[in-house]
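Anyone have tokens for SDR family oxidoreductase? Sequence:
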Amino acid sequence: MAFLPIPRSDRKVDLTGKVALITGAGNGIGKETALRLAGVGARLILVDIDRSAVDDVAATIGTRASGYVADVTDYAALDAAVRAGVERFGGIDIVVANAGVGTYGSFRNMDPETFRRGIDINVNGVFFTVRAALASIIERRGYLLLVSSMTAFLPGPGMGPYAPGKAAVDHLATSLRAEVGRLGVAVGSAHMSWIDTPLIRDIQSDLSVFDDYLKKLGPPLDKIVGVDVCADAFVRGIARRQRRIYVPGWVAVAAWCKHLLSTRLGDRLFGPELDDFLEKTDAVVAEQHRASSGRNVTTANMPTVAETGR
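Reply: yep, here.
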């Protein structure tokens, strides 16, 4: 286990005593957000499908964190983890529905099961997380942060179910806000560009054409943002109970231009380089017999529902 110093996100933010549930807490955005929330006084219910990863994060934080293993597509397992966390800490004030999976390859060649699994994790997993925690969130007039993406607004060719799923999460946040807003619950959605996480690094490792494709897209789409920047924005947004969190800020422009981007003008974003990218991506998928990272394939078969925290 790695015992690392807990970064303090923002000394003006104080969430002392607040209880936050984070899914996908074992690495990437979930891990960094957990560490920063711990740094501003929060207590953490950490959920991940990877036992060793979530155990590592919980150990780093110490007694103010408890880790649980659950697949977010298994509602019974997820509900059991949430109930155990509520029993441990007394309730939930904050939810970060972060667990997600990236996929790649063209629609015309994508395995239907890969698409189904992607939607199951990225959409159903978010709803299951919200549903399991909602009673406690309503009781405490808390805050829900549903992690979407810039791809909710921008076309996402070559991403399979990822972009459609993130658009669904954006709409889920809006629908949920209409239902629970008058109950004192705030609902936010997070929209990020490319963030330096294991998800992106796995894609870079699997697809040698990915970085070249980003360069052809040009600024600002060619930039990968540090996960620390993203986690800091999450913590500030959580403290302010923001409706939307954009990382980096220019993603807000994409949100406002969403309808324009769905017109023929938006089609001009993608030229012949897209065809080349898809062809090479499909070739990699065929060779590797998977349309997601090897890490995702491994963790998908891990056992669920065990407590790992302390």
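The longest strand covers residues 186-192.
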